[in-house]
TrEMBL record:
Organism encoding this protein: Gulo gulo (Wolverine)
UniProt-recorded Gene Ontology molecular function terms: metal ion binding
Family note: Belongs to the small Tim family.
Pfam families: zf-Tim10_DDP
Localization per Swiss-Prot or TrEMBL: Mitochondrion inner membrane
Protein topology in the membrane: Peripheral membrane protein
This protein's domain notes: The twin CX3C motif contains 4 conserved Cys residues that form 2 disulfide bonds in the mitochondrial intermembrane space.
Region span, Disordered: 64-102
Its job: Mitochondrial intermembrane chaperone that participates in the import and insertion of multi-pass transmembrane proteins into the mitochondrial inner membrane. May also be required for the transfer of beta-barrel precursors from the TOM complex to the sorting and assembly machinery (SAM complex) of the outer membrane. Acts as a chaperone-like protein that protects the hydrophobic precursors from aggregation and guide them through the mitochondrial intermembrane space.
Name this protein carries in UniProt: Mitochondrial import inner membrane translocase subunit
Length: 102
């Protein structure tokens, strides 16, 4: 992860801070300040994104806990539509044989 971040930061630095054509061997004021600003901004946004992702993950976990705590049985006699037959496990008289007439 750190190698990927370094690679992306280096690419951004070269694209934004290193001119294609230069006339002097020494860095100008803007060229010497650019890497510091570029790296600082990159690290700031990287830190902000990490915090935001952690926050969203925590919210998702809390939501899942609330859903699990508040949800009742998925299939039970009280949740059955009147025209839908519940599974046999909900039939009260299990000892009676099932009669099939063809």
């Amino acid at each position: 992860m750190m190698a990927d971040m370094y690679s992306r930061m280096s690419s951004a630095y070269q694209w934004k801070c290193v001119p294609l054509h230069y006339k002097e061997a020494e860095l100008s004021k803007g060229e010497s300040v650019c890497p510091d600003r570029c790296v600082s901004k990159y690290l700031d946004i990287h830190e902000w994104m990490g915090k935001k992702l952690t926050e969203l993950s925590t919210q998702g976990e809390e939501l899942m806990k609330r859903v699990q705590q508040s949800s009742g049985p998925v299939w039970g006699p009280e949740s059955v539509h009147p025209k839908v037959r519940p599974p046999l496990s909900h039939v009260s008289n299990k000892s009676a044989p099932i009669q099939c007439h063809l």
